[in-house]
Please model this.
Amino acid sequence: MRPAEFGTFFLPGPTEVRAEVLEAMLRPMLPHRGAAYEALHARIVQGLQAVFRTHRPVYLMSCSATGAMEMAIRGAPEGPILALVNGAFSERFARIAQSCDRATRVLSVPLGDTPHLEQVEEALVAGGHDGAHFAAVTVVHSETSTGALADIHGITELAHRHGAMCLVDSVTGLAGTRVETDAWGLDFVLTGSQKALALPPGLAFAVASEAFVLQASVVPARGRYLDVVEYEEFARRAQTPNTPALSLLYAADVQLRAIREEGIETRWARHAAMLAHTEAWVEAQRAAGVGIGYLCRAGERSPTVSTLTLPEGLTASPVVRRVAELGYVIGTGYGALKERTIRIGHMGDHSIETLEPCLRAVGQALRGG
Ligand SMILES: *Cc1c(COP(=O)(O)O)cnc(C)c1O
Model:
């Protein structure tokens, strides 16, 4: 039983986790160098390959998604990095690059916007300091702090045309909206367990292209725990370099079976339907005189998280608190938008049916009910 103060989760992470998935974590331990573990590992990788749409190995990392962001930076080709920043998580990617001593140029766009291809191309043409060509571009697919969705396919094509690799954080994109790792030629793409995959926090999953791993092998100072080359070597044996968070992997095994049964394209469609439903609900609120709206333009909204601006005179914290009393956990805004917006995470295993009562509660809270 859930304590009364914890409602149903519509946070943009961690998301609601089904009981069957939580219960899988009660299984006994296994030695992580042995056939039983390797079978579990291989099964999880196979499930994730269908989610990432790749034939490459998927690295099972026992850290949160930020660890996989750092892996991407540490293994990135030498040379300046172009960081596309449109919110808190894309800014985190830029900061990681800077803290790993990479020459980084930031291309910032306003909160709620998404980096447009013309701007990206212009920055790629201009190059880093002294006009040096960029070795890599960082981009966040679904910027969870604002709800903006970036065109990672288009940005990757541009990066490649200018000789750069594209490193993609798809933490709230993957498993909620189309990601074509192989067909789009993504060089590095990563996610975390606690978002659209609807698993408990604590795991990150990442895929690197063969070209990325090949060039990484000559990059100095890749560190040890987050070394992509080592992950690649152990992936061939269906193992991880270090002791994996086994209980979380049991949960992933159960959840990936459910995702396979649903079908990844059906899962994407379910998320698109939840966005459309939330958009229609916002329109209905506006028609009834409640002054809420989307932070992002139509067509640039993530199917997994809606960031809504509040009516004049309302701040996020009391709204979120009232919605929690009504049984639903949603998020305030993030960073600079903390009190000006609320965020509803409609991702993971949610559906229009489970989302509808949450939206009703938000509507009630906005009316002061
Ligand atoms: C949640 C999130 C992360 C990673 O956060 P962790 O706390 O490391 O799991 C990174 N990027 C985006 C877009 C996210 O939503």
Notes: The chain has a mean pLDDT of 97. The pocket of pyridoxal-5'-phosphate is lined by residues 13, 64-66, 89, 140, 144, 169, 171-172, 192, 195 (CB under 6 Å). The chain has two domains: 19-261, 264-366. The longest helix spans residues 264-287.
